[in-house]
Amino acid sequence: MPDLVAGLFRTRAGAEMALGKLKEEGFAADQVALATPRIGRRGRYGLKVLIGIGGGALLGALVGAVVTGMVPGVHPLISGNLVVTFLFAAAIGAATGGLVGGLLSMSASGDRALYYEQEVESGRFLVSVAGPRLDEARRIMRAAGAMESAPIEAPLRPESD
Length: 161
Known about the structure:
By secondary structure, the chain is of the alpha+beta class. The chain contains 5 helices and 4 strands, in the order E-H-E-H-H-H-E-H-E. The protein has 2 domains: 4-37 and 123-151, 2-Layer Sandwich (Alpha-Beta Plaits); 45-107, no CATH class.
């Protein structure tokens, strides 16, 4: 079960109204947060992409070097000895694997945090609530005019409350 609910608002006034209603209903100040276009939250998306690039590059380099040595009849692609051919294939494999790894790590993110970060950067206001009573918090945000309010892990779809 998710432990965080996020709601997107078009205006700061709507987000602040939702914060006020949440506090009136007994949500503590450390349970609620507001992210504005100027005060963005920092995630670990760069680290995830970097890990994907590094893993893909390593795997691509190994595959490139191994395939070059295993394919019968492979002759050196560039002048020099066989070691230079292995290094060339490893470099090409690393570049390809790094690109693929980076793209896969960006698209395979299971959470919706990147979506919310992009929405905040585009001018929306994000109210997040952590802790218990998340269904009640979600209902309060929807009543306050949230464009959407959903657990971060849940798929975003319009619902009627």
